[in-house]
Amino acid sequence: MGKRESRSARPAFRRAARRGVPRAVRRAVRRLPAVLIVGAVLFGLGAPAHYTCAPFLSAAPLVAAPLHTLRATVTAALAAVAVAVGLVVYHRPSDTGEALAEIATIGAVSLVALGINRIARRSDQQLASARGIAEAAQRAVLPAPPSRIGGLRVAARYVAAQADARIGGDLYAVQDTPHGVRVIVGDVRGKGLGAVEAVAVVIGAFREAAEQEPTLEGVAGRLEHALQREGARRANLRPDSVDRTEGFTTAVLAELPPGEPVFRLLNRGHPAPLLLHADGRIGAADPAVPALPLGLGELGVWPDRAEEREFPAGSMLLLMTDGVTEARDAGGTFYDPRAGLTGCRFKNPEALLDALVADVARHSDGQAADDMALLAIRRGERIEQHFVESIDRFRGRTSCEDVPEGIGGFGRSAWNPPGMSINVR
């Protein structure tokens, strides 16, 4: 058995045709070459000898060429020629010259179909190469976070709306800092290289500010300044461009302090995170006071305020971009992640993201209109010691004592030596 062709080897037209086309229609179109050949056989056997089915047989390989692989196109071509020869033998026409001309025509059309398939495959290889470069750039800008950080389990996912586009304006980052684990999930307005540049600016500013700023409000202020500076740079490069305030970024910042069963949020115009409890309940962490996205500081000044919420043991915090909430079904109904996940229980963040991505794809029939960036964080059920290397590095301290395993009634206020944080895993 031959190797299954990789996704990149599939014709580009076939992948492009998926976008905006219902799944049932795609399946029907893919089966069209076989339908044409079967129809030609039935027509040829039932119709008088002077009727021809050559148009059906000629169309079969032409339809297969942009939709299927080279092997499938060759199969359709050979089947069309074989059926044409078989019908000639079956009918034994008096004018064999005309019959042979039809067979030759079908053969010539089949060769043209093979050429079309080759061109499509070459174009697909170029797209695959471009996609590989895009994926490398995405990994550089949005590296996958570690599965465990600061005593928490973390999983991230980036799902592109289009098969051939892997770079967009959605972003996420996780940073272990002296102030706890800090997280950002955001969505830069726009697409293409301009959005990628803005993503790089936001991620770079976040990683620096997360280490240095003692509060989330300070981190947000640094991000605001970085985006305004980037907007001014672009305005100088393109003086005739539109207002630079169009380059805004919606974002939600989260902080999970070491040893505390809470998390702090600062939302700047972004979809509210969800808190999934261990018993299947889900709550939305909506901001008390809505705020404008980052990068719109020129429109006014308002104080940022981080909100603190409980983070019970065994629960998970889900942050997402609007590609999730704006996914629609055939009737135009938006996807509701809270309704879709209520009552479900997940062992780890990876399982949660897998289920969410699958449910969004089911709801939208695989026709998502926007990229999705997802980040899930789980707080474990047992308390144990956790050494945060970044705290040691910045405080210049090292931990020298061990916590006996299984000690009962142990809490953060009971014992906390210098340089050590008590975390929940």
SSE layout and pairings?
Elements: H1 12-18, H2 23-30, H3 32-46, H4 54-67, H5 70-91, H6 96-141, E1 148-149, E2 152-159, E3 170-177, E4 180-188, H7 192-212, H8 216-237, E5 249-256, E6 262-268, E7 274-276, E8 282-284, E9 307-310, E10 316-320, H9 322-325, H10 337-341, H11 349-364, E11 372-378, E12 383-386, H12 389-395, E13 421-424
Antiparallel strand pairs: 1-2, 2-11, 3-4, 4-5, 5-6, 6-9, 7-8, 7-10, 10-11, 12-13
Helix pairs in contact: 3-4, 3-5, 4-5, 4-6, 5-6, 7-8
Jot down its keywords.
425 residues, elongated, disordered C terminus, 5-stranded antiparallel sheet, disordered N terminus, 12 helices, Phosphatase 2c, domain 1, alpha+beta, Bact_Sigma-Reg, 6-stranded antiparallel sheet
Describe the structure.
- The protein has 425 residues and is α+β, with helices and mostly antiparallel strands.
- It has three domains: 7-136, no CATH class; 147-381, PPM-type phosphatase domain (Phosphatase 2c, domain 1), CATH 3.60.40; 382-425, no CATH class.
- Helices cover 44% and strands 17% of the residues.
- The chain is built from twelve helices and 13 strands.
- The strands form three sheets. Strands 1-2-11-10-7-8 form a six-stranded antiparallel β-sheet. A five-stranded antiparallel β-sheet has the order 3-4-5-6-9, covered by helices on one side. The chain has a two-stranded antiparallel sheet with strand order 12-13.
- Strand 1 and strand 2 form a beta hairpin.
- It is elongated and about 95 Å long.
- This is Serine/threonine-protein phosphatase.
- GO terms for molecular function: phosphatase activity.
- Keywords: Hydrolase, Membrane, Transmembrane, Transmembrane helix.
